[in-house]
């Protein structure tokens, strides 16, 4: 059966990412440094010679990110898996807001969370596959952490 990839609109704060991984399947979740009460998403950020960790807010639509490095506003950064250093950048996708490259976090069941690599641009898209099976879990639950 062919699976369709769709984009759904999710209200800010309605869900958080619980299982994000790099393209090779390494978990990016960091329970040591929670944000908004949930394990943060830890990635390596690089801009020019500056390289360090950033902890991304796992709550969709919330951006209380914790930077270990100083990244100027408005620059496009590179993002890597802290375990295998694979780039998280998507070559074929660009932000529909500022046309910068996007990064992707891989979610269970073929889902993806895409975000803009330009610092300060808060464009995020949630892409889910096999939507019928996943949407049925959405009903009656503000936090669809089972899904993520
Ligand atoms: Zn990895
Ligand atoms: Zn953007």
Give your account of this protein's structure.
- By secondary structure, this protein is mainly β.
- It has one domain.
- It is 5% helix and 38% strand.
- The chain has 1 helix and 10 strands.
- The chain has a 5-stranded antiparallel β-sheet with strand order 1-10-9-8-7, with no helix packed on it.
- Strand 8 and strand 9 (112-116) form a beta hairpin.
- The longest helix has 8 residues, at 131-138.
- It is globular.
- Mean pLDDT is 81; it is low at 135-148.
- It binds zinc ion (2 copies).
- Residues 95, 97-98, 100, 116, 118, 121, 123 line the site of one zinc ion.
Which strand order do you get reading across the main beta sheet?
1-10-9-8-7
SSE order in H/E notation?
EEEEEEEEEEH
Number of helices: 1
What does the largest sheet look like? 5 strands, antiparallel
State the end-to-end distance.
22 Å
In terms of topology, how is this protein built?
Blueprint: E1 5-8, E2 29-35, E3 38-47, E4 50-56, E5 66-67, E6 78-80, E7 89-94, E8 101-106, E9 112-116, E10 124-129, H1 131-138
Antiparallel strand pairs: 1-10, 2-3, 3-4, 3-6, 4-5, 7-8, 8-9, 9-10
This protein binds zinc ion (ZN) (2 copies).
The site of one zinc ion has 8 residues, from loops.
What attributes does this structure have?
mainly beta; 5-stranded antiparallel β-sheet; 1 helix; globular; binds zinc ion
Put the structure in a nutshell:
By secondary structure, this protein is mainly beta.
């Amino acid at each position: 059966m062919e699976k369709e990839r769709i984009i759904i609109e999710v209200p800010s704060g309605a869900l958080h990412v619980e299982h994000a991984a790099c393209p090779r399947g390494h978990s990016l979740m960091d329970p040591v440094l929670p944000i908004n009460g949930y394990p943060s998403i830890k990635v390596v950020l690089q801009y020019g010679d500056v390289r360090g960790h950033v902890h991304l807010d796992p709550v969709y639509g919330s951006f209380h990110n914790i930077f270990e490095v100083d990244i100027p506003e408005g620059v496009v950064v590179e993002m890597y898996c802290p375990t295998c250093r694979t780039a998280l950048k998507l070559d074929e996708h660009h932000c529909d807001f500022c046309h910068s490259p996007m990064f992707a976090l891989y979610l269970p069941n073929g889902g993806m969370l895409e975000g803009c690599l330009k610092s300060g641009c808060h464009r995020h898209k949630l892409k889910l596959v096999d939507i019928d099976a996943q949407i049925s879990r959405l009903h009656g639950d503000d936090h669809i952490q089972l899904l993520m």
